[in-house]
Task: structure prediction
Amino acid sequence: MIDYIIKALAFNNEARVYIAHTSQTVAEMVRRHDALPAAAAALGRSASAGAIMGAMLKGNQRLTLRIEGNGPIGKIVIDANAKGEVGGYCDQPHVHFHNTQTGKVDVKAVVGTQGSVRVVKDIGLRELFTSESALVSGEIAEDLAYYFTVSEQVPSAVALGVYINPENEVESAGGFIIQLLPGASEETIAKIEAALAKMPTTVELLHDGKTPEDILDLLAGNDAQILERLPVRFHCQCSYERFARGIVALGEDEIRNMIADGGASAQCHFCNEVYEFDIEQLEILLADAKRNQK
Ligand SMILES: [Zn+2]
Result:
């Protein structure tokens, strides 16, 4: 199954529902960063949420979701856009804890319970929009529900999960976000709460192979209408040209040093891709830098 998000209107047309299947995207991120299981779960939950938040945007709009707690993983940064492209990293992917009672990965222990959730949106205007809320649980889903409710004033329920198999591989990932539309009735709110109370955990849903459509059916039954399906894929904004422009911007002296060193390599911290620049390529960039200075 390819990764995708469904957008739906449900619960008497008084709520928007976004459901994401992000298994391949998350597996790719975890592979690139060589993340251990608890870090992989934290990164994967954040990426699934980021993918959905990207799907809430339009056209060329994009956003960065940054979760920074006081746990050993450091900050988690996810880039996503309205085209279903998602990328991201965490400061320290080689951290892992599991709950000794449940045997499950302990996301809260790697993320921490104090810190912030920050969202920077680029909606194509001159200024970026930044909004922020406090970290409230370190489990990511609750933190985002709090973010939407407090910072964006949109009451939301968020469920996220990454199923890591006994071989410590990401087998599946995904989640959903339900957002109340303005003027939603008490009856609808009660209906959503009742539906959520009956839902298995996201990891159970993923483990059972449930598709976004199956999850929508479990949540809302006939009281839902799918509006759109958006394919999701791992994508990083980096490119050879982007790093080349960065090297040109360093200036002539710096580039001469790189040439004297026999070449240079640059690594994208978002996706760990390495770009090599040999002497011949650096000579071209040096010429560009000289032209820029005139
Ligand atoms: Zn990259």
Remarks:
- The chain has two domains: 4-234, 240-293.
- The mean pLDDT is 96.
- Residues 240-293 form a domain with the CBS domain Like fold (CATH 3.90.1280.10).
- The pocket of zinc ion is lined by residues 236, 238, 268, 270-271, 273 (CB under 6 Å).
